[in-house]
Amino acid sequence: MRVALVSYRSKPHCGGQGVYVRHLSRELVRLGHEVEVFSGQPYPVLDEGVRLTEVPSLDLYREPDPFRTPRPSEIRDRIDVEEVLTMWTAGFPEPRTFSKRVLRLLEQRSADFDVVHDNQVLGSALLDLEERVGLPLVTTIHHPISIDRRIDIASAPTRRKRLTLRRWYGFVRMQARVARRMRMVLVPSESSRRDVVREFGVDPARTRVVLLGVEESFVPPTSPRMPGRIIAMASADAPVKGIATLLEAFAKLRTERPELELMLVTRPSPGGRTEQLLDQLAIRDHVRFVHGISDAELVELMGSAELACVPSLYEGFSLPTAELMATATPLVVSRAGAIPEVVGPDGLCADLVTPGDVGELVTAIGELLDDPERRARYGAAGRRRVEELFSWHAVAAATAQAYDDAIVAFAQESRQRSATEPRPRTATEEQTC
Fold it and tell me: What is the pTM of this model?
């Protein structure tokens, strides 16, 4: 099959969507399919055999100058105007504007592909794709962003901040509307399936669970782990990741265990809640932030930790949890979203705690630090679970089957429409009328 995989931004290091695009596209190519990724900035890291078509936006959120005002010479068309005006009025325009740009490109290249796969763009222009491009559309929804919106607004310190967040998350209404009309929706967990049905109103019959995979380079360490080192990963410094809960728990643990060190794989928002907590809790010297590292460096870092913590308030899958399991790192995780599905029953390869409960987190981490035998058992069980369930090859095979099903259904619908449409009269028939 010839696949157009579209993703409005595909961060190469932090962010599950970028990981998904890279590994799914590579494994589809290994299965013999042709894959071309259409992406806006930041562009993905792709493997050999996968083509990239850049779909440039105005890149209004780039580092080191996010929320920048573009120069007049950068404005190319009406879509650019819409993008900057939405940003100026505190909205997030990229899903909508990317969908318009990629529709325009695919209209010119409809003969080059058999199927289009949307990686949670859910922009309004995609509603026209099947009719205008003539190709079936499959979409992946990792989880409904309406959940992030609720958590962020509830955590906002002021009314003004809450109003700003409501405007920023305005695109979620569009995504829900688009999701309800998608032909086939792939989700990474049963938890995510339930949430997509409840939050976005998607017909359950149109959903299909395809678990995510773990890259083969995530393996257990060959060197001893660092005593007292705790690691946690967050694709964004956002309330939904539960970093504040972890920092408070870490501060309490250090009163009895001054040797502890916390490694956070994320980039803290300058002057944000995380930065403020470091000073309020007097733990700045004992928390290290790491970001933008290679997979090899990340694997080494995971393998250096005595245990890992996933304190998220919600996850649609939690790929970092599975990657930590692959490195045989024992876990303390939140009983939130799909995390219990990933780690299995409580006590198999992780201890599960109530999301946002500092006291439970302190107890669970402390008890696991004091029990090296249980840590070793959790690590080995986690590794086995990844080997049994989480393979990118299996993800690609299941996704390719979804493509096949969508192509067949689309062809049948096209034939039915053709059969019911009035037949154009021939020239002879016109003359006899």
Answer: 0.91
